[in-house]
Task: structure prediction
Amino acid sequence: MTLLDRLARRPVQSMLRGPHFRRTAIIDIGSNSIRLVVYDGPQRIPFTLFNEKVMAGLGADMDSSGAISERAMERGVAALERFARLCVEMAVDQLSVVATAAVRDASNGVEFVARAADVGLKVRVLSGEEEGMASAHGLLSGMPEADGIIGDLGGGSLELVRVSGGKVGRAVSLPLGVFRVAEIRRSGKKALAQRLDALLAERDFADIEKGLPFYLIGGSWRALARLDMQMTGYPLPILHHYQMTPDRPAILLQRLERSSKVEMKGLPGVSSGRLPGLPDAAHMLCTVIERLRSSHLTVSAFGLREGLLFEQLSDELARQDPLLIAARIEGEAQGRFVGHGDQISGWIAPLFHDDPPEWARIRLAACMLADVGWRANPDFRAERGLEFALHGNWVGISATERAALAQALFANFGGGTAIAPSLEALAPPEFLRRATQWGLAIRLCQRLSGGAEGPLEGSSLEIRDGTIILRLDPDYASLAGEAIDRRLRQLGQAMAMGFLIDA
Result:
């Protein structure tokens, strides 16, 4: 019986079930690492149930030999055997196995694919263009608004792809992976730039529009971004959507070239398997952004694997907002009242009709997460809301928007009008003040309704002549009281307005 047959016969044990929920897994066979990721939850933005990598180094010696070494081959096959077994035991509904540059280019790549088949795994060897397109779709899955050029640096290749308007444009795959850069650089100081220029011209990519944002994908470039976080004292240790100015890679390169081996090993969040290639990755990044004259750099935590999942979605699912989908799932999983977030959003909306659409979107996410802190000790609910929003595994949200979401939940759970620690370094004061007002309005709504639908249908908020008016239908007039008066007063003070209850 093959592995796929065994998967089909195992009972489904996924934690969440529904028409758009399934447990999927991807085994990604790269030039540097082989990784298994198991996903569960909504197809549009599944959560990671399990993630493990083995630094097999399939492409490490290929520049000199043209083949995957026997040691790397054995290490890779052993990883596949473990991962295949785990997929069976974890009751995966659908498994995809893909290989990129190392297997694609190796003289014995066919042998590796055959040995994977002996384990029960059918490997799809991606072409360079397919690899680039999948990475670009991964970027769009996590950053639907992306407009620029993505660069996905692996061990064996570099993919450059134009993305705009939610669509993938021109793509090119270049044999300039981390494992190949050192050999090129040994030919001379300008050799890497000359090689890049020649390849771009050869593949008709040299005339691509310049001055665009550049999106970084790949473990080596993410490691560089993490180093930049450390050097700049960035207060939010989350890579997705982290931004750098174009001068930063050259500064990082100087740091790496001046660091001893001991200092390199002390770099936080960087695996030992990636350390030797970091200077070459930095050289490659400096060369690429100089040629593209990139306006700024943005890191994406999503790439090839997420893109392979995204490519399978219907147009309807692909158009869904990843932040709002995730906020709804988390809010209803951890809250007390199913569907209450949408009701809160509609109830407080009249106070914030002049919010720009991008702010209104974050406000809606805050409403969906309005109850995630109720299980915490009352003295720490504000901190719970802050941490949940700021450090949650969200995508489709910038660092500035994370700060606003965190401030809204901080105020909602009892933080008052104070700005939570560290947020002022991430978002402008006017955005944080507005988020505070959202949180206090949500807090009022929660107290008035008790999570029930009726009180919200029997009441409303409006602003008239600089006064916030809470109207209560006769059947709900009895809900007015000291607690409501106190929270309404606090909201009015935060908005610099008067207040009254019309019951």
